[in-house]
Amino acid sequence: MTDKKINKVHDNAKRDEWALKVAALDSLDKAATFLVHFRKQYTTVLRESFDLELDHNWIEALIEQKVAILKEREFTCNQDLQHKCATGEPAATAVAAVLAKMAACTDKMDAEKIHINFRIDFKSPIMPTNYFMDTDRLLGSKLMELRNLGYYDLSLAELRIKRGVKVIVANEHVH
Predict the structure, then answer these.
(1) Please, what is the Cα angle at 46 between 123 and 102, to 5 degrees?
(2) Is the pLDDT at 167 greater than 50, yes or no?
(3) Looking at residue 174, what is its pLDDT?
(4) Which of 47, 150, 161, 175 lies 20 to 30 angstroms, CA to CA, from 89?
(5) What gap in Å lies between CA 115 and CA 139, rounded to an integer?
């Protein structure tokens, strides 16, 4: 008898558990909401949990695949696929809102959060790539402009405190 798992080296109980959750997603609304929630919970520097530290990229890719498949099934015309977010929101509307928010921003830390949250909420397949990539570039440009103003005025220790960085010491996590 052969094992049905193809990538035995990379399989584990956490991935199996999440694969079952993803397989159960049966609508674009549910899957898009699930993906954004997953990103907020387990990805980026703003994540709420490090429980999936070794597996979050694999799981996120699996969820993204599911969203893309459901999006292609639900959006029956190219116009929707190219101009509509998986949430149903017109991509141009979402872009205009986040660009206006960033244009009004004058603090580099706030700008960083705007940019990170944009990626959490809209990274493809949520937003069509043709909108996402250009918007990400524009947000990043504004962020870099703000960062370059007095970025080195703070000491490394002060910068870590301001950004909420936890310094991890080698072998600290080894039991």
Answers:
(1) 60
(2) yes
(3) 55
(4) 47
(5) 6
Cis ω for the linkage preceding 125 (within 30 of 0):
yes
On whether residue 2 sits in a domain, the answer given is no
SS3 breakdown of the chain: % helix, strand, coil, rounded to 5?
65, 0, 35
Q: Where are the alpha helices (DSSP H) in 24-55?
A: 28-42
User: How many domains does the chain contain in total?
Assistant: 2
Indicate the Cα dihedral angle 11, 12, 14, 15, nearest 10°: 10
What is the extent of the structural domain holding 94?
83-175
Q: Evaluate if residue 13 carries a pLDDT over 60.
A: yes
Q: At 84, is the secondary structure helix, strand, or coil?
A: strand
d(CA 85, CA 129): 10
Give pLDDT, residue 72. Answer: 95
* Spatial distance between the Cα atoms of 151 and 108, rounded to a whole number of angstroms: 9
The helix (H) or strand (E) run that includes residue 8 is none
- Single out the residue in 74, 108, 132 at which a domain terminates: 74
What is the CB neighbour count within 10 angstroms for residue 91?
Answer: 21
First-last CA distance in the chain: 37
- The secondary structure of residue 151, as a DSSP letter, is G
pLDDT tens by residue, 53-88: 889 999 999 999 999 999 999 999 999 999 999 999
Amino acid at 32: A
What is the radius of gyration, based on Cα positions, of the chain? 19
